[in-house]
Amino acid sequence: LGYVNVGLHVDTDDWEAGTTADSVVARALARRDRGNVVLLHDGGGDRAATVAALGPLIDSLRARGDTLVPVSALVGVTRDAAMPPLP
What we know:
Layout: E1 10-11, H1 21-30, E2 38-39, H2 48-63, H3 71-75, H4 79-82
Helix pairs in contact: 1-2
C-alpha cells in the first residue's frame, strides 16, 4: 500500500467550545459544496456534541442523495491496511 492523501474541505469545527450537535450538522451541510470529506474530531476534549451529531448528519446527507463510505473503500484497501493498529 502506498500513501493516500485525502483532502478535506468540510471542517465542522466541532472542537470549538460551546459547539452543539445542531451546529455540527449545520456547519457540515452549509459547507457541503466545498468538498466531499467531512472532518469530525475524535479526541482533544469533550466530543459529546460530535457523537450526538453523527446520526442526524448521516441522515441529512443521505436525504440529499449522498453516499457515505470509508476512505479505505474509495482506494480499495481494507480498513486495517488504511489505518493499521498502533503498536
